Amino acid sequence: MAGQLAAVSPRPVNVVHTCAACPLENEGGDVYVARAMTTESRRILQRDDQTVRAAVDAYTSLHDEQSGGDLEARKANYEVLVNRYYDLVTDFYEFGWGKSFHFAPAKNGESFEDAIVRHEVKLAQALKLDSGMTALDVGCGVGGPMRNIARYSGAKVVGINNNDYQIERGRRHSGREGMQHRTSFVKADFMQMPFEDGTFDGVYTIEASCHAPDKAALFREIRRVMKPGAIFAGYEWCLTDKYVADDAEHRRIKKGIEEGDGLPDIAYTHEVDDALREAGFEVVAARDVAPEADPEGPWYLPLSGRDKSLRGLPRTPIGRQITNVATRVMERLKLAPEGTARVSDFLNVAGDALVAGGETGVFTPMYYFEARKV
Ligand SMILES: C[S@@+](CC[C@H](N)C(=O)[O-])C[C@H]1O[C@@H](n2cnc3c(N)ncnc32)[C@H](O)[C@@H]1O
């Protein structure tokens, strides 16, 4: 397995790209396919066919039990699993989701974008961030939350991320938004962070600690880099108490989410509390915030097809299907590297599994916790 993975080039593979100059994120879904086909194809043409195919093979084999892709293999290869995953999907995420790669429960009739920002600001408030303070974002993606939190609070935010391609994108976005002095990116594994003990005034993480092979070990490492009395808050992907391991449908949902989202495994909510305490934190608050959404604004709405806005189209089943067909056509025409459509396939499986997880209530991507370094 390791040999097979090592044979894959570490170069990021930009499967379907929305470039910095492309205003796709701000446009209605009615134009997105046509724009994507022209703007992205220029970059895709420069990609190496074999690199994409090999990366997809390496990623999917970690989830394929026939090829030895069991839980232990995924945990042992977590860096490869996660990096391959984000090399492949970052452009799809930016295309369909924006620059903050997380869910949010919509309240009081908020738009998708407003709910995303409120979800992030809640963390800044929990950390009591202010100007003169520095926070750490663990698993920062392309930095959407960092920039919003820095703007809201006046604090500086350092983001740690193990994915080179996302860091490159994040630095570019911060520069374009004039936030390069308030936000910075560090390329490192969050299981071993290159920071001195007691560096940060607060730490947060959004839907990233689910990638850790050992949650208590990650939380210990986070606690180490915090100042005494500081707060660590975050949103974690979890199974709820409604998840029944003997139920075949529940297992199918869990597997679809793991495979489609680059996860080694998914923990129960109470396991997150246990891991925080094991790491030495005092747990100040812990609850699933998914039920706090308006009945018509659950977190999985954008993926479910019930979001009727044009901007939401790329996220819906039909929008995802259009993207899927477009990637297949581009592959056929040799405009996209071989393997592109398979990425779109597993993202669609993930999208459907996430909606099923939300509708049945067996899964939440927003188990909120607040913990103090005592
Ligand atoms: C779902 S994304 C969330 C990104 C960001 N928090 C946001 O909400 O936009 C998960 C992030 O965790 C990062 N990540 C996963 N495992 C990591 C590790 N071992 N070390 C550092 N970053 C990691 C990924 O590269 C990705 O940026």
The appropriate CATH architecture of the largest domain is 3-Layer(aba) Sandwich
What portion of residues belong to β-strands? Answer: 15-25%
- The gyration radius over C-alpha positions equals 20 Å
Name the CATH class of the largest domain.
Alpha Beta
Distance between the termini: 42 Å
Shape: globular
- How many domains? The number is 2
Largest sheet: 8 strands, mixed
CATH topology of the largest domain: Rossmann fold
The hetero compounds bound to this protein are: S-adenosylmethionine
CATH superfamily of the largest domain: Vaccinia Virus protein VP39
Specify the structural class: alpha/beta
In round numbers, the mean pLDDT is: 81
- What is the number of helical segments per DSSP (H or I, 4+ residues)? 14
DSSP strand tally? 8
Order of secondary-structure elements: HHHHHHEHEHEEHEHEHEHHHE
Spans where pLDDT lies below 50 across 5 or more residues? 1-47
In helices, the fraction of residues equals 40-55%
Report on the architecture of this protein.
With 374 residues, the protein is α/β, with parallel strands linked by helices. It has 2 domains: 2-101 and 306-359, no CATH class; 112-293 and 364-373, Vaccinia Virus protein VP39 (Rossmann fold, 3-Layer(aba) Sandwich). It is built from 14 helices and 8 strands. Helix 8 links the parallel strand 2 (156-161) and strand 3 (183-187). The longest helix has 21 residues, at 340-360. It starts with a helix and ends with a strand. The relative contact order is 0.15. The structure holds S-adenosylmethionine (SAM). The site of S-adenosylmethionine has 23 residues, from helix 5, helix 7 and strand 2.
